[in-house]
Automatic annotation (TrEMBL):
Gene3D superfamilies: Jelly Rolls. This is Cupin domain-containing protein. Residues 1-21 form the signal peptide. The keyword Signal applies. It comes from Rhizobium anhuiense. CDD domains: cupin_BLL4011-like (cd02235).
Amino acid sequence: MKMIQAIALALVLGGAAAAQAEQPLQRTDLIRNDIDVPGHEAIQVRVDFAPGVLAPKHSHPGEEIAFVIEGTLEYQLEGAEPVTLKAGQSLFIPSGVVHSAKNIGSGKASELATYVVRKGETLVVPAK
């Protein structure tokens, strides 16, 4: 009986991992914490992009620092030329600036996004 339960659990966990891996754009919340600036908090998120995937135009209620962990991402900030970053490079995105990011490489791309934002507001605001 224990062997059947173990096999069933492995199938469920394996299926969940496969379903998670198949998502074209996946955000994983890492930390959210109050900071010394009243009414603000720091948030850190890992964002994984499948090849060719675009994070549509959006903004944030505060600043973002994007650090490319792996792959190649192209960032388009409103009013600026596109910027291409590879693993180990960073980009500062000012508060409220509409932007998008696209994986332009042939493999998975990942970024570590660090935000300093107004507390209690929606983190990702789709552009109109």
